[in-house]
Design brief:
It comes from Eiseniibacteriota bacterium. This protein is mainly α. The protein contains 33 helices and no strands. It starts with a helix and ends in a 5-residue tail after the last helix. The N terminus is likely disordered.
């Protein structure tokens, strides 16, 4: 008996149906992974558990998700190799790459950007830094590859009509979490007290939320706004529409309250982009939306004016176009430094995310005076950042991604189906909201991941019916091999820096210089030997303990351990002047203790090397001055003090050191005059230095028999440092002299307190 036609049809199509089910199951893994990342990256943080509980934790999550995607892709390719053979697979590979590049020019540009990042990492001034990313930034090669994986995964999923909707919904929920938490912080009822130290500059009114910084919160919500509005517009139920519109208002308020000028500019730019794309798509919003939008905007603008942030809000509004504002001047200096890096390293840049390592050579005294202390890790302009760190090759690849994505969005907005046109308007506005704030700031992993997903959706411009996708089967063994390789990479790229951060976080909670504190720092340095911070902190701990130690042999042993740790730090980052100045400081202490073993010339050479790496860093200059003074190299110290005083005339420590040198050389009057200038300059938190300067002034005044001035100067020294016994002795001696010579007071005037 022959099977009927319907039976034959089912049998003929059974393999393809199984393949479709298998492909759907495979797509669900990628689908789930990307959506989890898009939700978790903005909201996931572990403050208190890690030194950097925000961006570092998010990047670790991104790399983990990217490795899952890579394992899945590898399993598919391995299965193809198993079924077709290695040689046929290799013969087909060039054709597949060319066809994919023609079909997906954005993807080809993304691949070129990744290859540029690989080349820049290899040629970096510090390759390990470029691989893992700089502290506080973490935008190294592993992050670049992770973001690229999100682009390719999103593009592979964009054939589904539900993909953009799911991206928007997940992003909207993440935005609700971030905005709600920011609102708690603005209201001063933060349940978890997640704060970021720089927010204190704005009287604690800025909300860092789950992203760790007000600017990042603002940038993320700016990107989400067009997607949230799109969700509200297409919602079938009144309750859903009200909920999405309420989230729109809350997001706008948080953006306004963030005091982020980049976020404000991003909202304006995204609005203009949405209007332009709406005109191109021939879509018109309902008339009722006009009054609703106007009411939300008015309410959002009025609310900050009736809260404690009113003064800060108005001040930031005035600074939007004020190039003389300190933050504007800082950005101009950072941009200039980045462009000079491009001039010196035009092809590949200084290395991915290596702006912080290269910056000391481009530091200016003007920038240091505006924003004192530290070394910036970003150019605060992603275009300049990419050019500086990846050179012209990376810049051209990034520019191609930008142009091709804009073209794809425009094409979908004009020629797509009615549903995709509206989605293109939202996606295009969100991408503009990503780009514009980053021209005066920098992207975060949360915003960059969302941008990659939206670009991947836009890159799927070819009609679905015109493209034949192969349903890749994955055998158990190919999947096991893919997971094994991904696991090996995870243990290399994620676990070591994670263990180091956890150890340092535990060390910070342990008593300073305790055995547990030192042991945890040693663990961190061992887990991530390429990162100079951990061995430098370990060396600093040994140095402080050694300087406090009374027993000479124990002190020497501690100094030896400090030197070993700091030598490892310098070897990991030869360009880092601050770690080298610590090493020179240890050598100075060793030379003072045992000059036969460590010569003064060795100390001089090490300090000079440190200063040459960062000649306009006041911290390095002053540390070098004092280290040279400690071993009796007064003339070398005087040269550096003059260099620092000329660069920073309002900075007190170099003048104080010049006064101390003059006092040691017996030029008492010159010392007193210089010290009187020094004590009235800015100390920048150097309380100990201020105490010693007042004490030196007291000594100089006493030597010149100006006993009242000596007494007053000693009193000032004791205000800064009550335990300074030398100042106490000078004060008591001056009091006795005044009691024995009453006439001295009349001849000295009112003193100089």
């Amino acid at each position: 008996m022959k099977p009927d036609r319907s039976t034959r049809t089912r049998l003929r199509h059974a393999p393809s149906a199984a393949g479709a089910r298998r492909a759907g199951h495979q797509a669900s893994v990628v689908f789930f992974t990307v959506l989890v990342l898009l939700f978790a990256l903005p909201v996931f943080s572990v403050p208190g558990q890690l030194v950097e509980g925000f961006e570092f934790a998010k990047v670790s999550l991104l790399v983990t998700g990217a490795l899952v995607l890579a394992a899945w892709w590898f399993a598919g390719e391995a299965s193809q190799i198993g079924s077709a053979g290695v040689l046929p697979w290799l013969r087909r590979l060039p054709g597949r790459v060319v066809a994919a590049s023609r079909r997906d020019p954005i993807g080809a540009s993304v691949l070129l950007f990744v290859l540029s990042a690989v080349a820049s990492t290899v040629a970096s001034i510090r390759p390990a830094l470029s691989l893992f990313g700089a502290p506080q930034s973490h935008a190294g090669l592993r992050t670049v590859v992770g973001l690229a994986s999100i682009y390719y995964a999103s593009r592979s999923l964009a054939s589904s009509s539900k993909w953009f909707l799911r991206v928007a919904q997940v992003t909207g929920v993440a935005a609700a979490v971030a905005a709600a938490y920011a609102l708690f912080q603005v209201a001063g009822v933060d349940p978890f007290t997640l704060t970021w130290k720089r927010e204190l500059a704005f009287q604690g009114t800025r909300a860092s939320s789950t992203l760790g910084h007000a600017n990042k919160v603002s940038a993320f919500l700016t990107m989400c706004l067009p997607l949230i509005v799109w969700l509200a517009a297409r919602s079938a139920s009144r309750a859903a529409r009200i909920a999405w519109l309420g989230l729109t208002g809350l997001s706008l308020f948080v953006i306004a309250a963030s005091l982020s000028r980049g976020g404000w500019l991003g909202v304006i730019a995204a609005t203009l982009a949405a209007l332009l794309l709406a005109l191109a798509s021939a879509r018109r919003p309902p008339r009722s939306w006009g009054p609703i939008a106007l009411g939300i905007v008015i309410a959002v603008l009025i609310l900050p004016l009736v809260t404690p942030m009113r003064a800060a809000f108005l001040s930031r509004v005035e600074q939007v176009t004020d190039l003389s504002a300190p933050t504007s001047r800082t950005r101009l200096e950072l941009w200039g430094a980045g462009l000079r890096m491009v001039g010196d390293h035009p092809l590949l840049g200084v290395g991915v995310d290596a702006y912080v390592a290269a910056f000391p050579r481009y530091r200016t005294s003007k920038l240091t005076q505006i924003e004192w202390g530290g070394t910036p890790s970003k150019a605060h302009n992603d275009a300049i950042q990419i050019l500086a760190t990846q050179g012209i090759l990376g810049g051209l690849a990034a520019f191609a991604i930008l142009l091709l994505t804009a073209r794809a969005v425009w094409r979908v907005a004009r020629r797509g189906s009615p549903e995709t046109r509206g989605a293109a308007v939202a996606a295009g506005a969100a991408l503009v909201g990503y780009v514009v704030p980053n021209l005066v700031g920098f992207g975060s992993v949360a915003t960059s991941a969302l941008a990659a997903a939206l670009a991947g959706w836009a890159g799927h411009a070819t009609p679905v019916a015109a493209v034949q996708h192969e349903a890749q089967g994955r055998s158990f063994w190919s999947l096991a091999l893919g997971l094994a390789l991904a696991g090996a990479l995870w243990f290399t790229l994620v676990l070591p820096p994670l263990r180091a951060e956890m150890s340092v976080a535990d060390a910070m909670r342990a008593p300073s210089e305790s055995p547990r504190h030192v042991d945890l720092l040693a663990r961190a340095a061992g887990a991530a030997p390429w990162d100079p911070r951990y061995s430098a902190e370990l060396g600093r701990s040994f140095l402080i303990e050694g300087l406090r130690e009374r027993d000479s042999q124990t002190q020497w042993d501690l100094l030896v351990r400090a030197r070993d740790a700091l030598a490892k730090s310098v070897a990991a980052a030869p360009e880092n002047s601050e770690n080298r100045i610590l090493l020179a400081g240890v050598m100075s202490a060793q030379a003072a203790s045992r000059p036969v073993i460590i010569s003064r010339s060795e100390v001089r050479d090490e300090f000079r090397h440190a200063v040459a790496l960062d000649p306009l860093n006041p911290v390095v200059l002053v540390a070098a001055e004092r280290g040279l003074l400690a071993v009796g190299l007064d003339e070398d110290a005087r040269e550096l003090a003059l260099q620092c005083a000329i660069a920073y005339p309002d900075y007190a420590p170099p003048l104080a050191d010049l006064g101390s040198i003059a006092l040691n050389q017996g030029r008492t009057a010159a010392a007193a005059d210089t010290l009187k200038l020094a004590v009235r300059r800015q100390w920048r938190g150097d309380v100990t230095g201020a105490a010693h300067a007042w004490n030196d002034l007291a000594r100089a005044s006493f030597s010149m028999r100006q006993f009242a001035q000596a007494r007053d100067a000693a009193d000032s020294a004791l205000v800064y440092y009550p335990g300074l016994t030398d100042a106490y002795g000078v004060r008591e001696a001056a009091k006795r002299a005044l009691s024995l010579e009453p006439s001295a007071t009349a001849s000295q005037g009112n003193g100089s307190k």
